[in-house]
Specification:
single chain; 271 residues; alpha/beta; Rossmann fold; Hypothetical Protein, Haloacid Dehalogenase-like Hydrolase, Chain: A, domain 2; 2 domains; eight-stranded mixed beta sheet; six-stranded mixed beta sheet; 12 helices; 14 strands
Length: 271
């Protein structure tokens, strides 16, 4: 059975450490699309931080798709533009609960509107990483848990890895069965609606395309990529991936700085 769809994490996978799609990787993806293969960008990012890469890869021309916020938002890409076709929201009742659990920590709590990152006033070495990556305005508010009274798709917690590990266990204990909590980087912890994951969103997408997991390649490097790598017919971990990610992969590709995605496309979609 042939691989018809490739799902790609962005940071640490599709892009190198300078957040650039290298020429070999871009060329391979363009050639794959020209012969009818589909490219899906499956990421924890806000859509605003994904659209530039979608445009660079001409997904609107070839009918690609964006799965943002780890699958919490599905954006259809056509020549008519970008259209959100699905959005699963995090119940607001959990926002004050998360904030109360974190009150004695130095972890920054973030969420999003369509065009702004909203954060509390805490400060650590990772507070500004998200706005630097996705290039959205960054608004700090005094009373985060009462300020956020609008629909959101996720909370992003940023902080020192050791402290995040501690609070990941606490949050999972207190919110078990109500929301999902997982790492997307050593310094990022995500709180999302129950059942939202990269793998689950890909399963729904493939069914709509009359395809199965056997037609899918999924490439990633971090903890939030585990569900899609485990689900795919060919699950690929980058050489720079976390060890837990490598353990569940079918194939270890070269790193994001060494055209790993390009090699995978050439080997499994173009040969």
């Amino acid at each position: 059975m042939s691989y018809e769809v490739i799902a790609l994490d962005i940071d640490g996978t599709l892009t190198n450490d300078d957040k650039i799609i290298t020429p070999r990787t871009k060329n391979a993806l363009m050639q794959a699309q020209k012969i009818g293969k589909k490219v899906v960008l499956d990421t924890g990012r806000h859509p605003h931080g994904v659209i530039p890469y979608a445009k660079e890869l001409e997904l609107e021309r070839y009918g690609g798709c964006l799965l943002c916020f780890n699958g919490g938002i599905v954006v259809e890409v056509t020549q008519r533009g970008f259209k959100t076709v699905y959005s699963k929201e995090l119940p607001n009742v959990y926002i004050p609960q998360v904030c109360d659990i974190l009150k004695d920590s130095n972890i920054t709590v973030n969420t999003y509107t369509n065009d702004t990152i909203i954060a509390d006033k805490k400060e650590n070495a990772y507070t500004n990483v998200e706005p630097d990556i996705i290039k959205l305005p960054f608004k700090r508010v005094d009373d985060f848990k009462n300020y956020v009274d609008f629909p959101v798709n996720k909370l992003l917690l940023a902080g020192e890895p050791e402290e995040l590990n501690k609070y990941e266990k606490i949050l999972k204990k207190y919110l078990d069965g109500q929301v999902d909590v997982f790492k997307s980087a050593p310094f990022f912890l995500e709180v999302v609606p129950l059942g939202v994951s990269k793998g689950a969103s890909l399963s729904t997408l493939l069914k709509s395309m009359n395809l199965t997991s056997k037609n899918l390649i999924a490439c990633g490097d971090s903890y939030n990529d585990i569900t899609m790598i485990g689900y795919a017919g060919l699950g690929v971990a980058m050489e720079n991936a976390e060890e837990d990610v490598k353990r569940i992969a079918n194939y270890i590709a070269p790193s994001n700085n060494d055209d790993g995605v390009g090699e995978v496309v050439e080997k499994y979609m173009l040969s």
